[in-house]
Design brief:
The complex is a heterodimer. Chain A contains nine helices and 18 strands. Chain A is an alpha+beta fold. In chain A, β9 and β10 form a beta hairpin. Chain B has a domain of 169 residues: MetI-like (MetI-like fold). The model of chain B has no long low-confidence stretch (mean pLDDT 85). Chain B is mainly α. The longest helix of chain B has 33 residues. In chain B, α3 packs across α6 and α7 packs antiparallel against α8. Classes of the chains: A alpha+beta, B mainly alpha.
């Protein structure tokens, strides 16, 4: 057992009947890591999180948390705490009693647990709402309370199931920063399930991309974004063109592509089929002669210095070092 | 010009509704009015004065029948049915959240007793008791017979309640260290409490006025509905109306107490603000 790891998954499999939701995955999460499990819906990321939490049994394999094999332990004995997707705040309890619930179950006296709960509510800037019921709070406020409730038992690992997906875009950005700040301050590991690659890139120290119940790539965000291992990952992470030629498939970032005149003797020929102004960049789509569509993201000044016309023939070009081979 | 003028459909539907209300409450109103019949009045209109004579007579010794004992039996039985109904329905509702072997069959078995004519259930249970050599009684065979009537309703209410119950509440409780019992006690029960009170009310009121299922199963001692029915054949004074008024008022009080309790609970939760 590895002392410098918060969580280790060893060949973990989850089967429902004969179908495997998670198949033989292994993962090591070092101490104090912000880890994002990323993938499309049905990829097994939530099942994995729930197995770590102990809300789902493990069909095969082991889960080690902080050096202890917790595979057969109930959630409370694992040193984890979970924040549920819908927050799952108890509707009949006010904020302070919701947050104090974990301590109440551990037999902590009323005065002490309310004082501790008050501290945690202050930590998430919700002390003013202590006496409110969950139904009287906005989504963002409910989430803060849920966060405080999960943290009151001083977990070694916090598990977050799609924590930001129910929030509007502005709030999502603010909460994202706050999650990262909390994780840094507490120094514990966060395991955060998301289907948003943007969220994963912004937050994670370790991005784990899953598909069809297996881990397809894990690594630092830049590593995953810059050198996607497969065509699926390149497409899922977005911002990439996946191009197949005689030697196989490779991925090249759309913002590293340029548009060259049709007379150039490099790159991929086609005609311009879409132009979208996105503010800082302009997204230019090119329909290739082979029938696919590829994209270049051009800085706005560069685009408007020499505007392109819809339907005009053009070539998409890139520097050879920007093309990364990917498995199909 | 008033553009929101009501069309003919409003008046047709309003008329229909008024007829419905009249049909529903007309008989009750008639009985309540007649129960205040003067001492010389009869079972029908016209009113021959106004008095509390028949209410007074109700508590005197009767020529036929004995209200006091029948009411006591009915109340005890209703409370027994209410308690058993709550415990069984809540437990079954919890169990039916998961599919288990035979769950569908079991569900239809429970619901089937709503479809089987009440009198047959009553007859069957009565026969069964005499077959095995037990005397039917209001607290044993009638208790069981009434449960076959109240339990399916209780179970269906629990289904509706758990339909809107978020399973992650329980998972969150377990995650925070609650034992299964404490998770039920501190999280599940408070959340489903309004539904549970509803089941209790259903159990109580369905039992309290149940006639057909009690008929063949009550044994020697009558419950209130049986007593009233027996009396309709023999009693020829408005004392029976006085009884009807009192029992109706009693049911209304029970329901109002329950509603008030629920609204107090709700208000107290909000008052914690």
């Amino acid at each position: 057992m590895h002392p410098a790891l918060d969580v280790e998954l060893i060949s973990v499999t989850k089967r429902y009947g004969s179908t495997a939701a998670v198949e033989n995955i292994s993962l090591r999460i070092p101490r104090g890591t912000y880890c994002c499990l990323l993938g499309p819906s049905g990829c097994g990321k939530t099942s994995t999180l729930r197995m770590i939490a102990g809300h789902e049994t493990i069909s095969e394999g082991d889960i080690i948390i902080n050096g202890v094999n917790v595979s057969d332990l109930p959630p409370v004995k694992r040193g984890t705490a979970m924040m549920f997707q819908s927050y799952a705040l108890f509707p009949h309890l006010n904020c302070i009693d919701n947050v104090a619930f974990g301590l109440k179950m551990r037999g902590v006296g009323k005065a002490e647990r309310r004082a501790r709960a008050g501290e945690l509510l202050s930590m998430v800037q919700m002390e003013k709402y202590a006496e409110r019921l969950p139904a009287q709070l906005s989504g963002g406020q409910q989430q803060r309370v849920a966060l405080a409730r999960a943290l009151i038992t001083r977990p070694k690992v916090l598990l977050l199931d799609e924590p930001l997906s129910a929030l509007d875009p502005f709030l999502r950005g603010a909460m994202r920063e706050e999650l990262k700040r909390l994780q840094r301050e507490l120094g514990i590991s966060f395991i955060h399930v998301t289907h948003s690659q943007e969220e994963a890139l912004a937050l994670a120290d370790l991005v784990v991309v899953m598909d069809h119940g297996v881990i397809v790539q894990s690594g630092a965000p830049r590593e995953v974004f810059d050198t996607p291992a497969t065509a699926f990952i390149a497409r899922f992470m977005g911002g990439h063109n996946v191009i197949t030629n005689g030697h196989g498939a490779f991925a090249v970032r759309a913002d590293r592509c340029r548009i060259a005149p049709p007379t150039a003797n490099e790159g991929l020929p086609g005609s311009i089929c879409s132009i979208e102004y996105l503010g800082a960049v302009v997204k230019v789509g090119i329909a290739t002669e082979a029938g696919g569509q590829i994209v270049a993201l051009l800085p706005d000044d560069q685009f408007f210095a020499a505007p392109l016309m819809m339907g005009a023939p053009a070539r998409l070009v890139w520097a050879p070092q920007d093309a990364h081979p990917v498995a199909a | 010009m008033n553009r929101d003028r009501r069309g003919p459909s409003f008046y047709i539907l309003a008329g229909l509704f008024a007829a419905f209300v009249l049909f529903l409450y007309g008989p009750i109103a008639t009985i309540v009015i007649l129960s205040f019949q003067g001492p010389r009045g009869g079972l029908t209109f016209p009113m021959n004065g106004f008095s509390f004579h028949w209410f007074h007579a109700l508590f005197q010794a009767q020529m036929v029948g004995n209200f006091g004992d029948a009411i006591t039996r009915s109340l005890i039985l209703a409370v027994m049915v209410m308690a058993a109904n709550v415990v069984i329905s809540v437990a079954a509702g919890m169990a039916f959240r998961r599919r288990f072997t035979g769950s569908t069959v079991l569900f239809y078995l429970v619901i089937a007793s709503l479809i089987v004519p009440s009198i047959l259930v009553s007859l069957g249970i009565g026969l069964f008791f005499s077959q095995v050599g037990l005397d039917p009684a209001w607290y044993s065979s009638a208790f069981g017979a009434q449960l076959t009537w109240t339990m399916p309703f209780g179970l269906l209410i629990m289904f509706a309640v758990f339909n809107r119950f978020n399973k992650s509440w329980e998972e969150a409780a377990r995650d925070l260290g609650a034992s299964p019992w404490r998770s039920f006690r501190e999280v599940v029960l408070p959340i489903i409490l309004p539904g549970v009170i509803g089941i209790a009310l259903f159990g109580f009121s369905l039992s309290y006025d149940e006639y057909p299922r009690t008929m063949m199963t009550a044994g020697d001692s009558n419950t209130l509905p049986l007593e009233i029915f027996a009396m309709t054949a023999n009693v020829t004074t408005p004392v029976i109306y006085a009884l009807g008024t009192l029992t109706t008022a009693f049911s209304a009080v029970v329901i109002m107490v329950a509603m008030t309790t629920m609204s107090i609970i709700r208000r107290r939760r909000l008052a914690k603000l």
